């Protein structure tokens, strides 16, 4: 097995002290692990260090000898079992891949063509780790376009989250658009997404929709389908309220809305529900009279949907599910989880705090599931998986 990636993380009001603590951990890991000369660095900073990002990058490049760097700013970062939220912190991890096996790209350094090959004939543009600026117009279209530029059609990454300028790192500190690192087919990795929710019924086909209004599923009224999925008799709500005045109808609608609180709708096509990368959208309204639902995105009759619940139990169970699938994939391919060299975890800023159980609960659960592999990442303003932009999710990538 190849040695694991050197890594380190620290918090300190003075960025120089935090950088020195990170570098000391990296150097100690390098001395003990027998890793080859590093060639690619991952660097995540909280936005407390936003103004100092160019200096931090220059120092990391000078002290490590690594020329190529990717990363992003976040209002929080993650490393090991720790979450650094709203405090000055940084995390770094170094990989020792051949420079033929990756290419850092940005708006000023275009990625290699989709059909490019490495010297050994493998596909050079197989997948990519990407970071983006959430203020960029037409970002979902940019993500889909970027996915078309890699042979696997699969991306992993997230959007910078900052109270100031959204900032990414792609061999330099920059803003706007998408940037990151293109990875060749020679680099073995596995990725999973965790939605933080669980389906509460089967997958249904959209049979009538207009914009954000969902009329029918499987040719049945959408509200009736939802009620059956949560174990409520639709006929009971179909009865007219006591009194036929406007106040009675409003009370009936409010009662239905309260009953559906915490219910979301997962939207996807084809095998999206099997892969777990369906898009979760909120239910924003109900029309008991028309038996229709209003959804937080436009729908098409080609879509499939499943109703979901998002709560602590569901979020923890889905994160365990993602880790279990990754462990099984790695063990089947390599024989042991010890083949894991390092990992990147990009989680939604909205998942911090109580959703997973309290401060650092998400990273502690990850570490219990994966062991002590090098693990860094950040809390994003949107997550990227496969060819889509998500919210309220976590994207875990393990390099083997």
From TrEMBL:
InterPro entries according to UniProt: FIST_C, FIST_domain_N, UCP018953
Basic and acidic residues compositional bias, start-end: 236-250
Localization per Swiss-Prot or TrEMBL: Cell membrane
Protein name, as recorded: Histidine kinase
Signal peptide: none
GO cellular component: plasma membrane
Ranges where the record places region Disordered: 236-255
Positions of the FIST C-domain domain: 222-387
Domain FIST: 37-221
Pfam families: FIST (PF08495), FIST_C (PF10442)
Species for this entry: Pigmentiphaga aceris
């Amino acid at each position: 097995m190849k040695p694991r990636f050197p890594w380190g993380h620290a918090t300190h009001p003075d960025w120089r002290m935090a950088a020195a603590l990170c570098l000391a951990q990296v150097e100690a890991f390098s001395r003990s692990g027998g890793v080859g000369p590093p060639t690619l660095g991952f660097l995540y900073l909280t936005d407390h260090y936003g103004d100092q990002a160019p200096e931090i990058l220059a120092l990391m490049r000078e002290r490590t000898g690594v020329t190529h760097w990717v990363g992003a700013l976040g209002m929080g970062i993650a490393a090991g079992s720790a979450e650094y939220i709203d405090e000055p912190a940084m995390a770094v991890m170094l990989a020792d891949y051949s420079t033929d096996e990756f290419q850092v790209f940005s708006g000023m350094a275009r990625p290699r063509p989709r059909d490019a090959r490495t010297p050994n004939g493998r596909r050079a543009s197989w997948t990519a780790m990407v970071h983006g600026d959430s203020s960029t117009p037409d970002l979902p279209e940019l993500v889909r376009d970027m996915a078309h530029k890699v042979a696997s059609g699969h991306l992993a990454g997230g959007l910078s989250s900052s109270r100031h300028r959204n900032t990414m790192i792609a061999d330099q500190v920059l803003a706007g658009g998408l940037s990151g690192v293109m990875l060749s087919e020679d680099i073995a990795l596995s990725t999973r997404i965790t939605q933080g929710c669980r389906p509460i019924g089967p997958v249904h086909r959209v049979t009538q929709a207009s914009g954000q209004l969902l009329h029918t599923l499987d040719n049945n009224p959408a509200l009736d389908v939802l009620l059956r999925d949560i174990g409520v008799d639709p006929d009971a709500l179909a009865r007219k309220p006591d009194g036929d005045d406007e106040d009675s109808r409003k009370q009936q609608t409010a009662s239905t809305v309260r009953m559906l609180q915490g219910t979301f709708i997962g939207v996807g096509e084809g095998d999206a529900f099997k892969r777990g990368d369906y898009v979760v959208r909120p239910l924003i309204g109900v029309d008991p009279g028309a038996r229709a639902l209003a959804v937080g995105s436009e729908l098409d009759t080609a879509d499939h949907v499943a109703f979901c619940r998002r709560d602590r139990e569901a979020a923890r169970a889905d994160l365990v599910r993602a880790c279990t699938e990754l462990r099984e994939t790695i063990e089947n391919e390599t024989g042991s989880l010890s083949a894991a060299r390092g990992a990147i975890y990009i989680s939604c800023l909205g998942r911090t705090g109580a959703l997973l159980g309290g401060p650092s609960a998400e990273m502690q659960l990850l570490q219990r599931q994966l062991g002590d592999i090098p693990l860094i990442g950040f809390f994003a303003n949107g997550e990227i998986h496969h060819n889509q932009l998500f919210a309220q999710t976590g994207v875990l990538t393990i390099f083997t």
